[in-house]
Design a protein that fits this description.
binds magnesium ion, binds adenosine-5'-triphosphate, 2 domains, about 325 residues, single chain, globular, Rossmann fold
Length: about 325
């Protein structure tokens, strides 16, 4: 063992502490559709092994970003490196290293589950000897073995998504770009899909996944919030939640229209968001404001079921950040 004070030891420690090269890096990446800057001077850094969630309102530029990274769209300005290759000069090398699942992916409905996998294996030049074994392994991984002879068109929505993911994985790419892979899928299938993603993440695959579901964003190692083509926040879910000042009070009023109106007039209430039957009030100080809000509701004869201080979730943080953007 080297003397801990020796230069050798210091070099060793420095080398293990030095940051690894990003696996994806973009500088001022821009894509325009006429005058619309769908992706606008995007600077994005993804580290190897990240499970990166891309969130943002409709039209924010998530799909365009993923399509640019997948080499499917022409870049107007800026540059990107993926797995050490420049997107402009080495698109073929990049294509071998990424798996891209489009928002509206297409399977071949008339082909069976297994035939779809083998079809994508051919497209990605997977050797004939490796094809069968990989397909069987992916079928097991995606829980589709017993359906392997069923036509893809006859699978449930959730199973189709899992098959699409399996097809995306057939050439064993180290980087996955998944565009809303679980949208419209029932909660049980969503959970199963995310268990698969988590397993891939634990095995070292780098994943960028766009999602409209905030519980999914919460499962990511980092989350990027896009707004009007730009990345406006990029951090761990915990740090993004932590960006919201104050506390959250959850209240279930009988008449939430009236409750919402009243809440916005009360001292210390920064913001009000509605969630189904619940009213979520962002306040400066939860302990201090809870009793004041309860008294105000009683005084105004507004009945409510429960009122409590609740933990801030990604959902509240996301909506609050978007509102801040909209206010400019
Ligand atoms: N092929 C295209 N031609 C013209 N405009 C486009 C095209 N694709 C996207 N856009 C525009 O670019 C902007 C970004 O769209 P994009 O699909 O990337 O958003 P998104 O964040 O994926 O939205 P969603 O959550 O609805 O999927 C939008 O204003 C959209 O209308
Ligand atoms: Mg999209």
């Amino acid at each position: 063992m080297a003397d801990p004070r020796s230069e050798e030891a210091v070099n060793y420690v420095t080398s293990i502490q030095s940051p690894v090269n990003p696996i994806i890096e973009t500088h001022t990446l821009t894509r325009k559709f006429k005058e619309n800057r769908a992706v606008d001077s995007l600077d994005l850094t993804i580290q190897p092994g990240d499970l990166f969630g891309l969130v943002g309102p409709d039209g924010a530029g998530k799909t365009t970003t993923l399509r640019l990274l997948a080499g499917l769209l022409y870049v107007n300005e800026g540059q990107a490196t993926i797995a050490g290759f420049d997107l402009a000069t080495h698109p073929e090398e990049i294509k071998q290293r990424i798996g891209y699942m489009a928002q509206a992916f297409s399977l071949y409905g008339k082909l069976s589950v297994l035939e779809n996998l083998l079809f994508f294996a051919e497209i990605f030049d997977v050797s004939r000897t490796a094809q069968k074994a990989r397909a069987e392994r992916l079928l097991a991984f995606a829980g589709l073995t017993e359906f392997k002879n069923r036509r893809a068109a006859h699978l449930s929505g959730g199973m189709q998504k899992k098959l699409a993911l399996a097809c995306t994985l057939i050439h064993e790419p180290p980087i996955l770009l998944l565009d809303e892979p679980t949208t419209g899928v029932d909660p049980v299938s969503r959970r199963e899909f995310w268990n698969i993603l988590t397993e891939l993440h634990l095995n070292g695959t780098t994943i960028i996944v766009s999602t409209p579901y905030m519980d999914e964003a919460d499962r990511c190692s980092r989350v990027g919030l896009m707004y009007e083509g730009k990345l406006v926040v990029c951090d761990s879910p915990a740090n993004i939640r932590g960006q919201l000042q104050g506390d959250l009070i959850e209240i279930f009023p009988e008449d939430w229209h009236a409750a919402h109106r009243l809440a916005l007039t009360l001292e210390g209430v920064i913001e009000a968001q509605t969630y189904g039957e619940a009213l979520h009030l962002l306040v400066d100080d939860g302990t201090r404001r809870l009793s004041q809000i309860q008294s105000a509701f009683t005084k105004n004869q507004l009945a409510y079921k429960t009122a409590r201080i609740a933990p801030i979730r990604m959902e509240e943080a996301f909506i609050s950040l978007i509102r801040q953007m909209e206010r400019g």
